[in-house]
Amino acid sequence: MSNLFTRRLALVASDTHRGLLNQGRRGIERETLRVDMSGKLAIDPHPRALGSALTNAQITTDYSESLLEFITPAEHDVATALEELDRIHRFANAKLDHELLWSQSMPCTLPDEEDIPIAWYGTSHIGRIKYVYRRGLALRYGKAMQCIAGLHYNYSLSEDLWRVLKNDEKSTADDKTYQSESYIALIRNFQRYSWLLMYLFGASPALSTHFLRGREHELETLSDDTLYLPYATSLRMSDLGYQNNAQAGLMPPYNDLESYMRSLSRAVRQAYPAYEAIGTRRDGEWIQLNTNLLQIENEYYATIRPKRVINSGERPVEALCARGVQYIEVRCMDIDPFEPLGISLETSRFLDAFLLFCALDDSPLTNAVTNKRNQENFALVVKEGRRPGLMLQGDDGAIDLQTWGLQLLEKIQATATLLDAQGNEQQHSNALAIQKGKLLNSALTPSARVLAALQTTDKSFEKFGLQQSMQHAEYFRQRPLSADENTYFENLAKESIAQQEEMERTQTGDFDDFVLAYSQRTPRQLCD
Predict the structure, then answer these.
(1) d(Cα 77, Cα 73) in Å, to the nearest integer?
(2) Top-confidence residue, 193 or 526
């Protein structure tokens, strides 16, 4: 362990500061496709009973009308967030008419591209800009890729805890800067070690043959409707999932917040010939927000992002520049098809210990060489993570995955023990022990369990997905909400519809002018 990690652990473990660990927040965003009872994509509009996708804070859509996104409030204990996620699922499940929530990250059987519905958010300027952005994604990457579902884990530490660390290190930075740069340091460590999450929690080793739509691939055939890689952990996170050739060279630096923001801001203003050839309008209608490498900063797909809650109409980089990093968003987690919520409490407890380790451990600056090495380790594990004797590249050269993983778990044990001291009994340490079991026996990983389960469904990914979706629907159906809980979500839905209608009724100005103004909101200091 580094001296910095040991000192920080001791500082946070002291009676004076230990309680600050309970003041951080956790939130979960779970995506899931709506499918019909035969496992095909439901292409009807977003159910009105779920409210407005534009203004409902807990139930919205992502890329498609068919891709629901459930969002929990940020809570001090992730167990509370999971309870809230469970209630959202139970409400949505009860409101779906002859439809199911798809249990997998990789999509169900999809219709032709033109029949996959893009999410619609109404006629307000904000609603239209969200729609046009998604039209641009369809043109740039195809609609099928945008139907992949993931789970985002939002994580923050208490601002008071960051101040304690800052004072101990006698930093002369202001609180906002110290906190922001500390989150960036967390991200650097995350990128070094996130291959471990792919091994432990990757759950998409197979996909439907229909998904690739003629694209070249190196997958093996499991059955007529299913392709796979025998040692893969997460095809979702491979170049078969969220791939983007245009972004291939766009790895923003994570050595400080300003260079990160500057890199994305440049990409939003950098012309890209293939997108210029498409243009921004067709038959008088907007088809993408601009013809640059990125339409907006969020188009860059990252496994983790520094985040700040934004105001309506505000750009993400604008919020970061003005108010600094507030939390980080982990974006590489697959949906766990064996869990009705897509994630378990046990997994969440491990993530908390893992992210606290990333936050407290020494985090050397990166360069092009180390960035490339991190990317190659990650890419290798998502496609071959369970291959016996798989070698990765560590700081001191080649090291086998199992050895490195066990070394990391030894370090993470310190933060798990620290978190358990807050009153959660041994939940973090128990979660860690389960992950150790996966490193010692790859058959226990979700990806291996998926492949084993496929053997019981005629080796069919689509049948397996439908089977799990039906089981999860029954799980929620057997546990209906209380009258008060149901009323809460129904009121949330009604109020969100009313809010959207009010926005549209009071809308002023021209949409073209709104798009222009939005595109010019990059902070001046990032435009050099």
Answers:
(1) 11
(2) 193
